[in-house]
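Dear colleague,

Thank you for sharing your sequence with our group. We've completed the structure prediction you requested, and as agreed, I am returning the results in plain text so they can be pasted directly into your records. Please verify that the sequence below matches your submission; if there's any discrepancy, let me know and we will rerun it promptly.
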Amino acid sequence: MPNLLKGKRGIISGALDANSIAWKVAQRCHQEGAQIVLTNAPIAMRMGEIKKLAEETGAEIVPADATSVEDLTNLFSKSMEIMGGKIDFMLHSIGMSVNIRKNIPYTESNYDYFMKGIDVSAMSLHKMLATAMKLDAMSEGGSVVALSYIAAQRTYPFYTDMADIKAMLESITRSFGYHYGKFRKVRVNSVSQSPTKTTAGTGIKGFDDFYNFADKLSPLGNASADSCADYCVTLFSDLTRMVTMQNLYHDGGYSTTGVSMELMEGMATNNS
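Please find the predicted structure tokens below.
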């Protein structure tokens, strides 16, 4: 179905480079007819290649620190000015753990780093939603999607404090989703994506081994960044106007598969 987002306006956060899910989402939204504004923290923009994406999609860039209500107020105000109306959809693709970057074990977490991760990766969603609501920046029936991971629900030791942070992110989607739904019928959901070979994902210790494990466990295999972008487009569209406050697994069946024959056969071969 072409032009699924024709006439819609959106904000895409977190596009760093061509490997990031947010980058793919921005491309797909543009292909489906949407007008978009790209945003990221100033420091991330210096590290990334967001200008290339802006040129490709005809988007303007509005830098914003997602932990700053002042920056977010400017983001929404400028975006409405640039695109000539209220925002129809928004992607929250923001995640950072200093503890992971510094290889600090979960049981020895630096709490200042932990709080920084909460502010950047979870509280930022609350701030974005609260700021948008205060400005009445979202259209009636709009859609917000935050990217999450199954470690918010189950134990993955290598994911350390980000597991707790993502659990908070998912809680905010439910809690704020209720209030925004009552206010403007705005939908708020999180998407729990397969392990994906992004710049952020590959920075986690042991990522390649786990990626292969998840791929063998999932009956459909790991979901790619491109397929995640497709899924986000459906959630931004009017086809999912009654879906809200959900954590939606986009993982090839991984989240509901106990064990796969392929993994069992591999273990039998290794033990023989």
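Summary note from our side: The longest strand covers residues 138-148.

Kind regards,
the structure core
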